[in-house]
Amino acid sequence: MLDSVAEFGHSYPAWIVDIWGVMHDGVSANEAAVAATAGYRAQGGVVLLLSNSPRPSPEVQAQLGALGVIEAAYDDTLTSGDLTRHELEMRPGAKVFHLGPERDLPIFKDLDLTLVESDKADLVVCSGLFNDEVEGPEDYNDLLSDMAARKLPMLCANPDHMVERGEELIYCAGALADVYEDFGGDVTYAGKPYAPIYQLAFKKLSDLASRELEPREILAIGDGINTDMRGAAEAELDSLFIAGGLHASDLRTIATAEKGEQTDGAGDLLYDGTLLSKLFAGQQLPVAAMRGLA
């Protein structure tokens, strides 16, 4: 358990850092994380921000600036939206049903495709819920079961199931894709923890470092066990787990079961390595953990 990433993170030439939940919470920047990544870069480190956001990098970078994440905090970004666009470029002329909010429409900009209703589509691109403030996956059962019955392939532009928005947890495209698979639908995932996004990340980092980097030279930092941590493990990267926020409620549940009494807040539980290790349920453990990147 660490208080500062500088205790060991500066021994790696490059970092892959999650955005939502580490660099910001969807409302404002994590000032300590911004200072940590900017300080690391000032000492020669390379930082690639890797996000399961369905938006392409230019839109994500604009959002970063609006939330207070300064450009000095990172070298470049790579998103699920970037990878989704790459996948769509290989399907010229596709008729696409977009399952997601209008704010994600930049993912289709200038591509050779036609946006249509679900009954006329040959592909569905899922970037999230239409209204993630009031809806849940259960609201989409009829639509998803119908598309699955018609064997409409889905491209999931955000494998996350949930993310933090301020103090709230909201559903993401991954939650809908999971239900779609339960209905027998075929899903291709563009993002963490799947290998293609890491292959692109390795290439980007090597270009930024002006030499080919080995996995052992890269530290992955994130707050998602099933995305950031699993992806890092499968890519053979050391990882730093950010324990606060996304999995805090899971940690409270484990602590209550272990101690036999109700635990109201995460608090010092986030510094209990034994409890934290139980969150991973057989997955490879990270090298270290922190409450928040600092």
Provide an overview of this structure.
The protein has about 290 residues and is an alpha/beta fold. The protein has a domain at about 80-190: HAD superfamily/HAD-like (Rossmann fold, 3-Layer(aba) Sandwich). The chain has nine helices and 13 strands. The protein has a six-stranded parallel sheet, sandwiched between helices. A five-stranded parallel sheet has the order 5-4-6-7-10, covered by helices on one side. It has a two-stranded antiparallel sheet with strand order 8-9. It is globular. The model has no long low-confidence stretch (mean pLDDT about 90).
β-strand percent reads 15-25%
Mean pLDDT metric = 91
| Annotation field: number of helices | 9
CATH architecture of the domain at 82-189: 3-Layer(aba) Sandwich
N-C termini distance: 13 Å
Radius of gyration: 19 Å
Task: Show unreliable segments.
Answer: none
**SSE topology string:** EHEHEHEEEHEEEHEHEHEHHE
From the 3D structure, determine the CATH topology of the domain at 82-189: Rossmann fold
CATH class of the domain at 82-189: Alpha Beta
CATH homologous superfamily assignment of the domain at 82-189: HAD superfamily/HAD-like
Largest sheet: 6 strands, parallel
Helix content estimate: 25-40%
Strand numbers in spatial order across the main sheet:
3-2-1-11-12-13
Question: Gist?
Answer:
By secondary structure, the protein is α/β, with parallel strands linked by helices. The protein contains nine helices and 13 strands.
Helix-strand layout with pairing:
Layout: E1 14-18, H1 31-42, E2 46-51, H2 57-67, E3 76-79, H3 80-89, E4 94-99, E5 113-115, E6 123-126, H4 141-149, E7 154-156, E8 162-165, E9 168-171, H5 173-182, E10 187-189, H6 195-209, E11 218-222, H7 225-234, E12 238-242, H8 248-259, H9 273-279, E13 288-290
